Amino acid sequence: MPDDGAPLTESAGGTRDVAEVSVHELTELRDLLFGAERRQLDELRRRLDTAELTPEELAEKLPQAIVQRSARDRQLGIALAPTVENAIRESVRRNPREMATAIFPVLGPAIRKAIAETMSGLVNTINRAIEHSLSPQGIRWRIESWRTGVPFAQIVMRHALVYRVEQVLLVHAETGLLLAHVPDGSLGDADLVSSMLTAIGDFVNDSFEPKKTGELRAFAAGDLTVLVETGPRANIAAVVRGTPPDSLPAKLQSTIETIHLEWCDPLTAFNGDAAAFTTTRPLLEDCVETVLATDTRAKSAGLRRFAWVIPVLLLLAGGLAWRTARANRQWSAALARLDTEPGIAVIRSERSDGKWRITGMRDPLAVNPSVLMASRGVDTNEVVAHWEPYVSTEPALLLARARHVLAPPGGITLSLKGDTLVASGRAPAFWIIRADGLAPALAGVGAVDLSHVTPGLPASMEPIAAEIESQRTLFAAGSDALDQRAVSSIATVAAKLRELVKAADANRYDLTIQVVGRADPTGTEKDNLALSRRRAAVVRDRLVSLGINASRLSIDASGSGDPIPADASAERARLNRSASFTIRAQPSLNANVAERQR
Amino acid sequence: MIQKKVCMVGVFATGKTSLVQRFIHSLFSTKYHSTVGVKIDRKQVQVGTEQVNLLLWDIEGRTAEQEIPDSYLKGAHAVLYVADGTRRETFEQLFSLRDHVRSAAGDVPSIVALNKYDLKNQWVVAAADGKKLIDGGFHMLTTSAKTGEGVEDAFRWVAKTTLSGATQTVQQPDHHGN
Question: Phi/psi at A73 (nearest 5 deg)?
Answer without folding.
Answer: -155, -170
